[in-house]
Amino acid sequence: MCGIVGYFGYRDAAPLLIEGLSKLEYRGYDSAGVAVLNDKGIDVSKCKGRLANLEARLESKPIEGHIGIGHTRWATHGEPSDVNSHPHCDCDITISVVHNGIIENYMKLREWLTSKGYEFLSETDTEVIPNLIDFYYEGNLLEAVMKSVSMMEGSYAIGVVCSKEPDKLVAVRKDSPLIVGLGEKESFIASDIPAVLNHTRDIYLLEDKEFVVLSSQGVNIFDEHGEELHKEIYKVTWNADAAEKGGYEDFMLKEIHEQPKAIKDTMTSRVISKEEISLDKITITKEYLDNVDRIYVVACGTAYHAGLVGKYAIEKLAKLQVEVDVASEFRYRDPIITDRTLIIVVSQSGETADTLAVLREGKKKGARVLAITNVVGSSVSREAHDVLYTWAGPEIAVASTKAYVTQLIAFYIVALRFAELKNTISQEELELLKEELYRLPALAQETLKHQDVLQRFAYNTYTEKDMYFLGRGMDYAVSLEGSLKLKEISYIHSDAYAGGELKHGPIALIEKGTVVIALVTQNTLLDKMVSNIKEVVTRGAKVMAITLEGNDDIEKTADSVLYLPKIHELLTPVLAVIPLQLLAYYMAKQKGCDVDKPRNLAKSVTVE
Ligand code: M6R
Predict the structure, then answer these.
(1) Binning pLDDT at 50, 70 and 90, where does residue 42 land?
(2) Where does residue 71 rank: exposed (0-12), middle (13-18), buried (19+ CB within 10 A)?
(3) Which of 68-72, 106-110, 111-115, 266-270 has the lowest mean pLDDT?
(4) Strand, coil or helix: what is 192?
(5) Cα–Cα distance between 547 and 562 in angstroms, integer?
(6) Cα–Cα distance measured from residue 204 to residue 412, given in angstroms and rounded to the nearest whole number
(7) Helix, coil or strand: residue 606
(8) Crossing angle (nearest 10°) for helices 51-60 and 13-22
(9) Which of 379, 400, 585 maximizes ligand 1 atoms within 8 Å of its Cβ, making it the mutation to test the pocket?
């Protein structure tokens, strides 16, 4: 999630841009840069790393001017590096652009522009934008930006300056946030309100496809047809601290609510109706899969739980046997690895020490390593043979939420592609699963509506010392994740059991009042789960069942039932985990815990 800032006014732009960017640091970034207009043209300063690096550069080589754009980059296309940092310019440096989002058709645009003689320096999708604007530029920057965005597919918030129109800053958004700050004889653009709060509390909240021009005439906003719009000013009444969390009390809650978008972004460009599933640049072939001797999925914590669901998906769809292991166990158990072994490592951060050790050991023994990770340029992404990124955006809360659901989506994509290659799925089933995947963002949004019920449930149960999760099949894998979420942020002891295991020991723990969360989304296992619920209810447990709409009969057995929207049985984990995340969140809040920074835990475990 990159951060954008732009300034138009009478003050020195560079320090204001840096200050604005520092207020967006919470969004996560790996490089930063600014471009400022002055009588020499456009001066750009940008570099990999923290904002402090950029500040040091600007101190030794200051750039002057009163109009400028700034950017903190969270790498997507191309690793974090000076050259991939924003702003990006056209070939003759007359146009400079900062961009947040993903231009899905950038390869096609890049090829087309190359055929027209344009040259590219970076690996980014963004660099097509200034060149496209240059191509369409005929003396009117706004018009050139309008024509350019009509060619772009994907999501974007962009800020543009042009040395041929040194009295202007143009910006536009689609599916990426952008606001305008209105000051006294000065104005700002930014990805988020905190970036401008030191200077103004008067804001325009831009909608998709609204174009804004900052100039000495003031601020003008246009729709995509060039009609001028008159928007209401939004007066900010809250403080910057709250704004960083987008109005949510904690990053974890914000990230839970970002899941519909994260799911959509991760599917974007990989699952396209009527086309083959795309695994980005991964070149795994049918011949390779036919020759594979074993597939391991290896990861830690939440990523390991995603791997458990991945096993179901790959085995069911591609009919390939998969073994899942926690990285710290796998690395010391002398696993059988040959040059025909495929190891899939999963890591949000891409820096987890045990996962990285497995990757390195696997490579040494000749295995091919495919990484599913969220951080471009992370050690895992650099060292694996193949990488499939989850586009969750930076995850700040220690408890992983949106990274988990995007890891599930990545596994579905891998499983479907493998099935396609191995011809183990019919065209009808493939199309059905694609359609079901498309429904997920909206259904995840719908599932979030249960938060009030879960908050009430937490209010009534937060004093419990223990809590148990039950499930079968994929529900068991999700139960493990629900149990981990609960213990890591609320410190309530909890365990998850496969329903069939109850009689083999755990049922001894059930007594009057024990709280049990039962997941019942796998229709083929429904009757068996209902029997498990009966077994614990008979022994006095209070059961909340989570099931799919239509399974009303469960109300006869469980104390309360929470319904998820109906979806293909294979995809239910994406929805089923949401109430469990919310439950853990509200339990922790009731107990007064620091939800984003639970005790004893770190976001990235880079040591053993
Ligand atoms: O960055 P990684 O995905 O490799 O991290 C793995 C685990 O440390 C992580 O998932 C951890 O279990 C989370 N705190 C769970 O919420």
Answers:
(1) very high
(2) buried
(3) 266-270
(4) coil
(5) 6
(6) 40
(7) coil
(8) 170
(9) 400
Q: What angle do CA 19, 24, 29 make, to 5 degrees?
A: 110
Residue 603 CA: which ligand 1 atom is closest? 14
Nearest ligand 1 atom, CA 605: 8
pLDDT digits 0-9 by tens, 392-417: 988 889 999 999 999 999 999 999 99
Positive/negative CA dihedral, 194, 195, 200, 205: negative
Ligand 1 mean position, distance from CA 257 (Å): 19
**CATH for the stretch 3-243:** 3.60.20.10
Give the distance from CA 470 to its chain's centroid.
Answer: 28
The protein residue whose alpha carbon is closest to atom 14 in ligand 1 is: 399
Res. 59 pLDDT band, cuts 50 70 90: very high
Give the pLDDT confidence of 482-536 residue by residue, as tens digits. 999 999 999 999 999 999 999 999 999 999 999 999 999 999 999 999 999 999 9
pLDDT tens track for 550-608: 999 999 999 999 999 999 999 999 999 999 999 999 999 999 999 998 988 887 787 66
Crossing angle of helices 474-490/301-318, nearest 10°? 170
CA 442-589-25 angle, to 5 degrees, is 70
What would the CATH number be for the domain defined by 449-591? 3.40.50.10490
pLDDT tens, 291-328?
999 999 999 999 999 999 999 999 999 999 999 999 99
The hierarchical CATH code for the domain 251-425 is 3.40.50.10490
For residue 266 and ligand 1, the question of a CB distance below 6 A is answered with no
Q: Which residue's alpha carbon is at the smallest distance from atom 9 of ligand 1? A: 301
Report the nearest-CA residue for atom 10 of ligand 1: 302
Q: Whose CA is nearest to atom 11 of ligand 1?
A: 301
Q: Ligand 1 in contact with 605 (CB < 6 A)?
A: yes
Q: Give the amino acid at 456.
A: R
Per-residue buried b or exposed e for 353-387, using 16+ beta carbons within 10 Å of the residue's own CB: bbbbbbbebbbeeebbbbbbbbbbbbbbbebbbbb
Beta carbon of 401 within 6 Å of any ligand 1 atom: no
For the segment 244-271, the average pLDDT, to the nearest whole number, is 92
Handedness of CA 554, 560, 566, 572 (dihedral sign): negative
Provide the annotated active-site residues: 2, 603
pLDDT at position 1? 64
pTM: 0.79
Distance CA 584, CA 239 (A): 27
**Ligand 1 center to 505 CA (angstroms):** 29
Specify whether the CB–CB gap between 51 and 28 falls below 8 A: no
Positive/negative CA dihedral, 375, 379, 382, 384: negative
C-alpha 184/C-alpha 203 separation (Å) is: 13
Let me know if the fold of 3-243 is the same as that of 251-425: no
CA 546 to chain centroid: 25
Q: Tell me the domain boundaries of the chain.
A: 3-243, 251-425, 449-591
Furthest-apart CA pair in the chain: how many Å?
81
Q: With the C-alpha atoms ordered 46, 51, 57, 60, is the resulting torsion angle positive or negative?
A: positive
CB atoms within 10 A of CB 285: 9
Q: Which atom of ligand 1 has the smallest separation from the CA of 604?
A: 1
